[in-house]
Amino acid sequence: MEKLQDEKKKQQEHVEKVMARLKHEKDSWFLSRSAKSAKNETITQFLQLCLFPRCVFTMPDAMYCAKFVQTIHNLKTPNFSTLLCYDRLFCDITYSVTSCTENEATRYGRFLNMMLETVMRWHSRKDIFERECANYPGFVTKFRVSNQVSEACDHVAFENYRHVCHKWHYKITKAMVICLDSKDYVQIRNSLIILIKILPHFPVLAKLANIIQRKIEKVCEEEKNKRQDLFVLATSYSGQLKAKAPLMTLESDFHQVNDKSAKSQDASKNAEQGGQPSAAPPSSGSASNAASAAKQVNGDVKSEYAFCLRKWNLSSTDLTVLLYQAGRTQCYRDVSCCSEREAESI
Asked: Which of 336, 330, 339 has the alpha carbon at shortest distance from 307?
């Protein structure tokens, strides 16, 4: 016991020395000449040069990368946007999933699982969020030059953060659905591996879990007599996902939704029971999905919806996703008046 206590003391001293050095050096990590550079280029370079190459190298490296992002946040590192970093990581993982080998997918899944663990801890309770995020520079929404004091309204509020978490979960679901529908062996295999790894923290929404479950069942049916390894992976994940079903939460418990969103959620639920799953979950202030909206709006808006489809050669699913991201009740009219680049910026 004495040796263990001595070793513990030495380790604590080592950690304190390392943290003291990090605190001393943190101001020189992310130097930027402008606020715009701090928000965009810094995160892009950090992800490309530091995070992505290492998180798939070994399993300890994957865990180290996730912990290091959290450490940068906890140190209140200047010019580092924690929110933007997580947003870049979760918003489109399709390409990352496709480019991985089987072992790299396992490590990448472990990395995502630890990142989601942090995200969901902040999401779970307001007091945790206020203590670990509220006044941190990583959650500043407006970047200012150093001689300007940032105001309280520049930081993300708890409910706004919960809305962002909802967006991230939807984005991950969309990426996984794309990979599972691709018919490509590597994409299906890697997506199943990653889904198994992140199962403790994704999915947590009942609606998204149902969407993934249907896709998994489709993979099982298609691969049963073809690629047995994919069939085994899909069957294994399906069983684990079904076992987690009692722990799933409703969208209204995950973040605040208004009455209109609640109604559209009921409409989407009815559509799913009829065999027509909706492409995007409704959120606070967002429009209903394209299928239900087309029945409710007048003839003029219907024609504008058709105009959007013809203008950009989009599928109804893609347009639904675009309208969901816009987050405005009049988004049919807004989108029809935008260029394609303007619409993407929404």
From this structure: 336
Evaluate whether 265 touches 293 at the Cβ level (below 8 Å).
no
Do 317 and 279 form a contact (C-beta atoms < 8 A)? yes
Our measurement of the distance from residue 45's CA atom to the centroid of its chain's CA atoms, rounded to an integer in Å, reads 20
The SS3 of residue 140 is strand
195: its two tokens: 């889904």
Considering the entire predicted model, what is its pTM? Answer: 0.73
Residues 6+ apart with CB under 8 A from 302: 294
Quick check: helix, strand or coil at residue 136? Answer: coil
DSSP-based three-state secondary structure for 172? helix
> Please, which residues have CB within 8 angstroms of residue 84's CB and are 6 or more apart in sequence?
39, 40, 43
Tell me: the pLDDT tens digits for 262-283? Answer: 555 554 445 444 443 343 443 4
Tell me the HSE value of 280 on the side-chain side, using a 13 A CA sphere.
Answer: 27
Q: Say what the pLDDT of residue 35 is.
A: 55
Q: Which pair of tokens denotes residue 26?
A: 């943190």
Dist CA 105 CA 79 (whole Å): 30
Q: What percent of the chain has pLDDT over 70?
A: 69
3-class secondary-structure state, position 152: helix
Residue 191, token pair as written in the block: 């997506």
CA distance 204 to 30: 34
Q: Is the separation of the CB atoms in 54 and 60 below 8 Å?
A: no
Helices (DSSP H) in the chain: which residue ranges? 2-25, 35-39, 41-46, 52-55, 59-74, 82-91, 94-98, 102-124, 126-132, 158-180, 185-197, 206-223, 228-243, 251-254, 259-273, 290-296, 299-312, 316-326, 331-336, 340-345
Which candidate, 195, 309, 324, 313, places its Cα nearest to that of 251?
Answer: 324
Domain ranges of the chain: 11-256, 285-346
Structure tokens at 41: 């280029």
